[in-house]
Design goal:
single chain, mainly alpha, 3-stranded antiparallel β-sheet, two-stranded antiparallel ribbon, 8 helices, 48% helix
């Protein structure tokens, strides 16, 4: 009696069963969280094999960005916060997503984000490399000998917020795309990607977006730091900085009133004093 999404596989020989099993296992482990797409049933022994997920009707965040270009600062921050809460839950369960991007974030009926596609996910103790998607993948992740780290997801989350605010992912340009596309092997393509980011300054286009205050700009920049040691260590630290930003913004009207109020009293006093004289 409810709509669901069924993912099934007609050709067993063309499926990487270890990756698929990892994806389903991690999704099941995270199924109690409302920020992650829920797995309802698994039928590995069926013909064809399948698993059943809840049906998310709003499409992906990538689909939406393709339509609208970018979101307002207020909506971008709200979306970013919800993504971080889901990601923080995943990390708390020991699961690193490792391929976070707008296409892997599905939107519910009220545009609430749901994390999906855990095909590249790794447990936090796993030493197996995992490749993400260009321009959302941390530079150190673009290495076939790298070890999974929570900072990979931190970088990807920052790249998503950068895209939400500016309309484009960081570092993406025609020259770098051409270098990557013309490379003759995967290791060379990854090397081009790493080198381009490591030799560039941290992007600043988000600071030029109207409505982006200094604290929000710093959050984005710290997520996108090239050196992982300069990045946030985990998602919880980003949430703490977002909360601190909210508290500061909430105090601004009171601070303004504390300045403007006495000035108005002083002006009024001067006016009546002049009239009296």
């Amino acid at each position: 009696g409810r709509g669901v999404a069924v993912k099934f596989y007609l050709h067993r020989g063309g499926v990487n069963w270890s990756l698929l099993s990892r994806e389903v296992k991690n999704l099941v482990q995270l199924s109690a969280d409302r920020h992650v797409v829920q797995v309802l049933e698994v039928g590995w022994d069926a013909t064809p094999p399948y698993y059943v997920m809840e049906l998310i009707r709003g499409g992906s965040l990538e689909d939406r960005l393709q339509r609208v270009g970018r979101l307002s600062v207020t909506e971008s921050v709200a979306m970013f916060r919800e993504i971080l809460i889901g990601l923080n839950h995943c990390h708390g369960k020991g699961v690193l997503h490792c391929d976070l991007k707008p296409a892997n974030i599905l939107l519910g009926e009220e545009n609430e984000p749901r994390l999906a596609d855990f095909g590249q996910s790794r447990m936090s103790h796993d030493q197996t490399p995992a490749l993400g998607t260009l321009f959302y993948m941390a530079p150190e992740q673009a290495d076939l000998t790298s070890t999974p780290d929570a900072r990979w997801d931190v970088y990807a989350a920052g790249a998503i917020l950068f895209r939400l605010l500016t309309g484009n992912p960081p570092y993406r340009n025609a020259s770098l795309l051409e270098q990557i596309d013309t490379a003759d092997s995967l290791p060379v393509r990854l090397q081009h990607y790493r080198s381009a980011i490591q030799s560039s300054d941290v992007p600043t286009a988000h600071f030029k977006v109207r409505g982006v205050d200094r604290s929000l700009g710093r959050i984005v920049s710290r997520c996108l730091e090239v050196n992982p040691l300069d990045r946030y260590e985990n998602v919880q630290q980003i949430l703490q900085d977002l909360d601190a930003r909210d508290r500061t913004r909430a105090k601004r009207p009171l601070m303004l009133l504390g300045i403007v109020g006495p000035l108005m009293v002083l002006v009024a006093t001067c006016f009546f004093a002049v009239r009296s004289i």
